[in-house]
Amino acid sequence: MALITDTMPVGLIIRKQPGVTRWVKWIWQPVGLIPGAGEAEWRELRRDGDIVEYHAATLNLTIYSSDTDAYRATLNSRAPSLYVVMSDAADPVNGCPWTPKLITVNAFEGQGYNESGEGLVELVPMPVPMIAWLRDFIEKHHVEEEFIKRRRDKKRIDLVEDGKGDIRIRQTSDVFRAPRNSSGRVN
Predict the structure, then answer these.
(1) Vertex 26: Cα angle to 23 and 28 (nearest 5)
(2) What is the pLDDT of residues 50-71, one digit of tens each?
């Protein structure tokens, strides 16, 4: 079966707000998504005192027919969300220490980035039009895979003698004994 893809440009909204401790001056957090957004690089959208929201970047979100199980897991979650992955900024823009790297709707891929411990990974609620777009894609391209239970082979496992090691290697004594050197003394 041929791999089918669909792509949507998604704008990333990042909020800058004052930190709550003296060690963190600013908090930068992805807070929203704009489906079908045009190009923008750190365009200010809204300002309320010290809190500023930017359209930080527009990234392409590509979905694949081979990953529909992961997309179903995303849609079946309590609050369907996208994973936003950001890496350390080599050249900070507007003082933001993060650079938008990836947006993914694949729950398994997002969890992998989250467990890696590199950069910043945040869940951002999925807008309703994106939920409809993803649901339509799943309905058109999802193929249910039949579960095949693995069967155990007929080899008898009750004949194994513990402590002898690999049966292909001739050994007359216990493999867990203390090693001896050439003089016969225990090391």
Answers:
(1) 130
(2) 999 999 999 999 999 889 889 9
**What is d(CA 61, CA 127) in angstroms, rounded to the nearest whole number?**
13
57 vs 39: CA distance, rounded Å:
7
Cα distance between the two ends of the chain: 61
Long-range pairs for 36-39 at CB < 8 Å and ≥24 separation?
36/8, 36/9, 36/10, 36/129, 37/9, 37/10, 37/11, 38/9, 38/11
Whether the model clears a pTM of 0.85, i.e. scores above it, the answer is no
Are the C-beta atoms of 16 and 98 separated by less than 8 Å? no
Alpha helices in the chain (DSSP H): 68-75, 107-116, 128-141
Those residues whose C-beta lies under 8 Å from the C-beta of residue 31, and which sit 6 or more positions away, are 13, 14, 15, 53, 124
pLDDT above 80 (res 36):
yes
Strand spans (E) along 26-158: 26-35, 43-48, 51-64, 81-93, 96-104, 120-125
**What is the C-alpha separation between 177 and 171, in angstroms, rounded?**
12
Q: Which residues contact 18 (CB under 8 A, 6 or more apart)?
A: 25, 26, 27, 50, 51
Contact 28, 72 (CB under 8 A): no
Residue with tokens 């401790």: 21
Report the pLDDT value the prediction gives residue 53, as an integer from 0 to 100.
93
